[in-house]
User: Fold these one by one.
Assistant:
Number 1:
Amino acid sequence: MIHIIENKISADEYNYLNNSVGWGFREISIVEEALKNTLYSVSVYDDNKIIGFGRIIGDKTIFLYIQDIMVIPEYQHQHIGTKIMNKLIEQINEYKNINPSIRTYLGASKGMEPFYEKFGFISRPNNDLGAGMILY
Ligand SMILES: CC(C)(COP(=O)(O)OP(=O)(O)OC[C@H]1O[C@@H](n2cnc3c(N)ncnc32)[C@H](O)[C@@H]1OP(=O)(O)O)[C@@H](O)C(=O)NCCC(=O)NCCS
């Protein structure tokens, strides 16, 4: 049965999901630190098997960032990504009780913009905003 658990994922599960979507493995200690510093996360399981994940990082009141939305290939296109996003948006709405102007960013993978547009995200650059930028 497919079910969601909040704020609980192991570094091994995270690496398993990352690798399944083609992003590879990271050192366990690095993943553990990243997960420890995560504000909120959603893990999706089919019985005991992890099949999807998403998380929010940020300062809770002014800026948030959605990261690591992933569903293993065998379960994609079954609206599991949508379930994950809906839970994250619910949590963002909680933060909005503290500051209604809180801003949430994300970096879409190439071609994935339509998935995020369904939840109200807009692409940059536009008339008001410059391009999103990244430092590697
Ligand atoms: C992106 C991802 C999380 C979507 O999860 P999913 O469970 O397959 O998505 P859903 O079934 O909830 O899709 C909802 C809608 O998003 C859009 N969508 C989903 N996957 C898409 C894709 N690969 N490209 C473009 N639009 C997509 C579709 O409009 C879809 O609606 P539809 O089913 O009515 O056509 C999943 O494909 C994934 O893990 N991909 C690999 C990792 C990745 O790229 N993550 C995003 C990083 S920015």
Note: The longest helix spans residues 80-96.
Number 2:
Amino acid sequence: MRAVWITRAGGPEVLAVRESADPQPGRGEVRIRVHAAGLNFAEVMARQGLYPDAPKPPCVVGYEVAGVVDALGPDVAGLQAGQRVLALVRFGGHADTVCAPAERVLPMPDDLGFVEGAALPVNFLTAYHMLFRVANLRPGARVLVHMAAGGVGQAVLQLCRTVPEVVTFGTASAAKHAVLREEGCTHPIDYRTEDYAARVLDLTGGEGVDLVLDPLGGRDWKRGLRLLRPVGQLIAYGFANLSVGERRSIRRLVGQLSGVPLLTPYGVMDRNQTVSGVNLGHLWGRADLLREELAAVLDLWRAGAVRPRVDGVYPFEQAAAAHRRIGERRNIGKVVLVP
Ligand SMILES: NC(=O)c1ccc[n+]([C@@H]2O[C@H](COP(=O)([O-])OP(=O)(O)OC[C@H]3O[C@@H](n4cnc5c(N)ncnc54)[C@H](OP(=O)(O)O)[C@@H]3O)[C@@H](O)[C@H]2O)c1
């Protein structure tokens, strides 16, 4: 099989396509010939050496694939060779062949293409899980969406539209605001040229918002907490602020870590706040929950309520360009790799 390897921590030049023997499906696993694989911000951070969950290089990362089942291990029920599927894999997805536990493999709708299929699982599961399991999004809620033009951000905007009267504040660079509006964002905010917190307060008459979805981390978590109105909730789900440029910077790391707010149960009680965390990668043991939520996302896709926006499709040999696209913050929506 062929796969995109992270040969060592560093810039996009450390990526290399290598050949190795095909994996064999173990008990309860299926083998998938991959047609498309999602590239996520986490995998760019893994290449930079900034993603503690990733395997040590040399390694193959990748959390999601769309493809065709070509072999079944013992004790697999409900799936068969030749079936088009989506799968969540805990690393190894940036390969033309992967083995995945059958419980994390779902049949694809017939009219869902492989590229669009590979763009769905991580972004939409994360967004769905945050809005509907952790946050219980209600009609009329005000939601601050950071990295709103990214894969998860757009999924959040689309899902917010499925609940009446939700008001969204989306931070993104100005060139991406037209797309944000297309996706239903009520108030796009250019965080590069204006103070987003001041703008949110201005737009809400000083009241703030009900929900902050924050994948930035560090000082932004602190700012997000200050933007919550009573009974508000902040969901921390990433630390993108650690990743600027192509390589790791210890100075930035220390600066951002020292900005993380310190919370106590007493403090959140007193302020009527909820602080939650979401890490899909650490929900691997809850295959039941991931399956149920991914099935719900596919139902929304069938109903036409969600449509992943694909920013670009890159052959494995151009994986470095795909990483650069995200690292340089040029993508609008999902970057997909194809073997
Ligand atoms: N916890 C989980 O389970 C989970 C799951 C998936 C993703 N995540 C996290 O969610 C975040 C978004 O992931 P994604 O895959 O949707 O990202 P993405 O598609 O790569 O989006 C990145 C975009 O966000 C914007 N951005 C704003 N501030 C940024 C910053 N400090 N560093 C880098 N980009 C910044 C940039 O656009 P502009 O600057 O042009 O607006 C950039 O193009 C990441 O932090 C990721 O780790 C967490």
Note: Residues 40-42, 122-123, 126, 147, 149-153, 172-173, 176, 215-216, 237-238, 240-241, 243, 278-280, 326, 329, 331 surround NAP (CB under 6 Å).
